[in-house]
Amino acid sequence: MLCFSVNAVAVVGTVAVAILLSGCCHPAQPRKANAPVSPNQALLDEVGAGRGWFHAKKTRPIRALKLTRDQTVETLEGKVTAKAGDFLCRGEAGELWPVTEAMLTARYTPTEIVDTDGWRKYAPRLDAEGVMAAQVPHAFTVTATWGRLSGKAGDYVLKNFCDREVAYPQDVWVVDQSLFRATYEAVRP
Q: Which of 33, 36, 150, 182 sits between 20 and 30 A of 122, alpha carbons compared?
């Protein structure tokens, strides 16, 4: 199965999570002496020490529309730039986020349902690996490849399932707690 890395904004409920395809899992990058391993090191160490990670999969459909020009998208976490050819996704709560076509098709299957504005319904792929998620009990920020994302107390930090053994993955993002509960489900071992 192919594994993709998320580094964009995907809105789940009331929090946007940017998603841009970059490939997964990531080789170690050289770093300067005394430099942190990751800008997210403290948060990821906290989550890892508390054994907070669990496997989850998306369970709810989304709508998506192919973009014909570059544009700025106002997500729940801030402004994100989307490129022509990317897809603008809309969750059940109306939240918006851009994704690449490869990321969209890796996680969702298109249906034949298209509304009058051209938004196609996509269902979560049954064979998608899912994500690793951890609920964070305090406000936090993560640095993603597309910018800084903010989470409230109780929101979730996520990483790709293929990065489950990676302490400091390149791609981490935030999902609002109410959206996470409404659109993800824990995978039982």
A: 150
Of the candidates 158, 167, 47, the residue with the CA atom closest to the CA atom of residue 107: 158
Residue type, 164: R
Please write the tens of the pLDDT for every residue from 11-66: 444 444 433 333 444 444 454 555 668 899 999 999 999 889 999 999 999 999 99
Helices (H), the chain: 41-49, 101-107, 177-183
**Do residues 182 and 18 touch, judged by C-beta distance below 8 A?**
no
Q: In whole angstroms, what is the distance from residue 27 CA to residue 104 CA?
A: 23
Q: Cβ distance 84 to 68 under 8 Å?
A: yes
36 close to 45: Cβ distance less than 8 angstroms: no
**Can you tell me whether residue 17 is helix, strand or coil?**
coil
The first and second tokens of residue 10, run together, are 């995907």
Global pTM reads 0.74
Closest among 92, 69, 88, 110 to 18, alpha carbons compared: 88
